[in-house]
Each structure stands twice: as structure tokens, then as C-alpha cells.
Amino acid sequence: MSSVLQGFTKSLAMTFVSEIGDKTFFAAAILAMRYPRRLVLAGCVSALIVMTILSATVGWAAPNLISRKWTHHITTLLFFGFGLWSLWDGFKEGGGGSEELAEVEAELDSDMKANGKTAKDKTEDENKKQKRPFLTQFFSPIFLKAFSINFFGEFGDKSQLATIGLAADENPFGVVLGGVVAQLVCTTAAVIGGKSLASQISERIVALSGGMLFIIFGIQSFLTSVEA
């Protein structure tokens, strides 16, 4: 039970500081301003849950491919590496999240122009689909767009790699549960708060907080290996 709780708390804290102010967070906030919020939230959360489960599964399988001792050492190095990386990003960042928010918004705008439809047109199309059965609504272009942006946006991300490392060292069920809860909280905040909330987030504070958290996890993991 303690192992599940430890995996849950570590994953919850790590995922929360990694996702607040992340590119997928900004994408969810912008999409929620243009499309029905429930479809955006459903698409974003579904993608992040699937990615969390996949990442934890890879981490869980890793000790079966190489020794647990080596997976523990690799996880320790990952924590220190991500910690230093985040701290470096934090010292380089400006005070707010407006730059990355503008970057994500520009990417979404260019994608929308490439598809040849305005947000208003897509919203009107989606409103017509409200009359369809409940389940078929989740196969709408908006749901799929939110899902794909968040799913592929997480590939190679620090949070994904850290989840793999954490699941290799902690109880994978606790890691998945903590990650899912954190993703749900962050994405819901982005969808409800929208662009106004996203623009108020300080990337520097988030990066520095995440860096310190990764360093703490790295020290704890190192001390665990020394005691063993």
C-alpha cells in the first residue's frame, strides 16, 4: 500500500509541475476558446490518460528487460538530468507564459488556415452534431483534433520520459493514478480558465519548481540505492 501511495504522490507532484505551463496546457486553453469545452476536455484528457498508461507500461516492463539495479540507476540519472534541464530553462525564461502561448496559438492558427475552415464554421458544424447520439459525438473532428494535438505533443516530453522512469522504480498503478489525477486537474484548469489563465502563468516559476522537485526525487532515489 505504501508503495502505491509513494508512486501516486511522486507522479502527482511531478506531472502537475511538468504540465502546468506546458505546450499541451496552452493548446487545451486555446482550443477551449474556439470549440465546445466538453469535447476539448474529453479529447485532451483521453489523450493524456492513454499516454500516461503507455508510458507507465513501458516503465513497468523495463526491469524485465534489464536488471532492476540498472533501471534504478537510470531513473536516478533521469531525475537529476531533468532537474538540471528544468532549472536551466527556468533561469533563461522570462517572467510570463505569453511567448509560448503566442507560439502555440500561431501554430493552431496556421493549421486551421491550412485546413481551409474558420473556427466559426467548425463550431457551427459541431453544433449540428449535437443532435447525434452521445457516443458518436466523441468521433467528431474537434475531439480527434484535441486528442491528436495532446497525444503527439507528449511524445518525447520530459513528463513522458519521467513517467517511464518513475514507473520503473515505483508501483506502476500508483504512478498511473497520480499522473491521471494531475493531468485531469491541469487540463480542466486550462479548459475552464482559457487564455486569460494561461497568460498569467509564470514559466520561470514553473520551471524552477519542477527542477527542484526532480532534483529532490533524484536525491531520494540516490539515497535509496546507497542504503540498498
From TrEMBL:
Belongs to the GDT1 family. It comes from the Eukaryota. GO terms for biological process: calcium ion transmembrane transport; Golgi calcium ion homeostasis; Golgi calcium ion transport; manganese ion transmembrane transport. This is GDT1 family protein. The lineage of its organism: Eukaryota, Viridiplantae, Streptophyta, Embryophyta, Tracheophyta. The chain crosses the membrane at residues 39-58, 70-88, 134-153, 173-193, 205-223. GO terms for cellular component: Golgi apparatus; membrane. It is found in: Membrane. The keyword Protein transport does not apply. PANTHER family: GDT1 FAMILY PROTEIN (PTHR12608:SF12), TRANSMEMBRANE PROTEIN HTP-1 RELATED (PTHR12608). It comes from Brassica campestris (Field mustard). Keywords: Membrane, Transmembrane, Transmembrane helix. It is a multi-pass membrane protein.
